[in-house]
Design a protein that fits this description.
Strand order of the largest sheet: 3-2-1-4-5-6
CATH superfamily of the largest domain: inorganic pyrophosphatase (n-terminal core)
Strand content: 15-25%
Radius of gyration: 21 Å
Distance between the termini: 43 Å
Shape: elongated
Largest sheet: 6 strands, parallel
Mean pLDDT: 94
Number of strands: 12
Helix content: 25-40%
Number of helices: 13
CATH architecture of the largest domain: Alpha-Beta Complex
Number of domains: 2
Bound molecules: manganese (II) ion
Order of helices and strands: HEHEEHEHEEHHHHHEEHHEEHEEH
């Protein structure tokens, strides 16, 4: 399945690699995997992202090889490359400000991804929806090219698999993710170091805010729904950031018997940010859709216009109904 993409790599010299807006571990890891591979083959390559790289992944790029967030000047010179490689995304609408220069460029387009798609933007597409991560596919590409795997590429690809499977929790039944992870460990990846860099990044303020939110946890629906609230004053008193609440809701799902977990975060603009989680057998998406939001069956969100108390009353009642 890689033959045409391998031919495009062999017959061209300059490559731009990009991915979706708000890059995650898999998009950064996959992009760096492709970048390192092209470098070892003597190609000119550049990685450009619409948005900044999250702190959890900047250790993969100590010399700042990734251009992110892309400036207008960076965007202006994207069209001159021979090949545009898009990883972990398969639609132009996922590329933000990079869409126009890449879509309109005469460059050969290549897509490597694992998300469902409606139509191909290029015939040179490898989209494997059964893959745990795009990083898995990039490993395959490097392997089938017979290209050397640099230690940075190994770290980057391991990070992609680790984060897209949430530490191998959602690695599906196919053994591929584990097989490739094992090969990456053989190539020198230190799994405890990667885990530490990616996940152990809490600040004292975030930890204190989490403690405040967790100490007030509430239950309803005969102990099957748990919810947390975070007020503006809690954020201000702990010195945390609003973004520090991301991930708190997942703690509710570690409680035995909980089928739905919810967090309510009071915003400065008078709205309430709501995140919902549910077990595989419970669909929470419709609750979010009814509130004007959405997401997936087991993870969704919405913005509620009203007070924290109103949001809690409305959404916990809807959650109990969804059980
Ligand atoms: Mn991915």
């Amino acid at each position: 399945m890689w033959d045409e993409i391998k031919a495009a790599i062999a017959s061209n010299q300059s490559f731009v690699i990009s991915s979706h807006v708000n890059p995650d571990g898999d998009s950064v890891g996959s992009a760096l995997g492709v970048y390192e591979c092209l470098k070892t083959l003597g190609k000119d390559a550049v990685v450009v992202m619409n948005d900044a790289i999250p702190d959890a992944y900047t250790w993969l790029d100590p010399d700042g090889d990734i251009i992110a967030p892309a400036s207008e000047a960076d965007i202006a010179r994207l069209g001159d490359m021979d090949v545009a490689v898009i990883v972990d995304a398969n639609g132009w609408d996922r590329l933000g400000r990079l869409r126009k220069p890449l879509e309109e460029s005469p460059a050969v387009k290549v897509v490597i991804d694992h998300h469902p798609y409606s139509e191909l933007i290029t015939p040179l597409s490898v989209i494997e929806t059964n893959a745990s991560s795009t990083a898995e596919l990039v490993y395959d590409l490097i392997d089938s090219l017979g290209a050397p795997l640099s230690s940075r590429a190994a770290d980057a690809l391991y990070t992609g698999i680790l984060t897209d499977t949430v530490s191998f929790r959602f690695a599906r039944s196919a053994p591929c993710a584990h097989v490739i992870a094992a090969k990456l460990l053989s190539a020198g990846v230190d799994p405890s170091r990667v885990y530490d860099q990616v996940y152990n990044r809490n600040t004292g303020a975030r930890t204190r805010l989490m403690g405040r939110a967790l100490s007030d946890i509430q239950f309803t629906g005969c102990g099957r729904v748990a919810w947390l609230t975070v007020t503006r004053s809690m954020i201000e008193e702990t010195g945390a950031l609003s973004s520090d609440t991301s991930g708190f809701v997942d703690v509710t799902m570690t409680i035995a018997g909980i089928r739905i977990g919810i967090i309510f975060v009071e915003s400065r603009d008078g709205t309430v940010q709501i995140s919902l989680r549910s077990r595989p057998d419970t669909d929470i998406n419709q609750v979010a859709v009814d509130l004007g939001g959405g997401g997936h069956r087991n993870a969704a969100g919405a913005v509620y216009s009203g007070t924290l108390e109103q949001a809690v009353r409305t959404v916990t009642a809807a959650a109990v109904t969804a059980l």
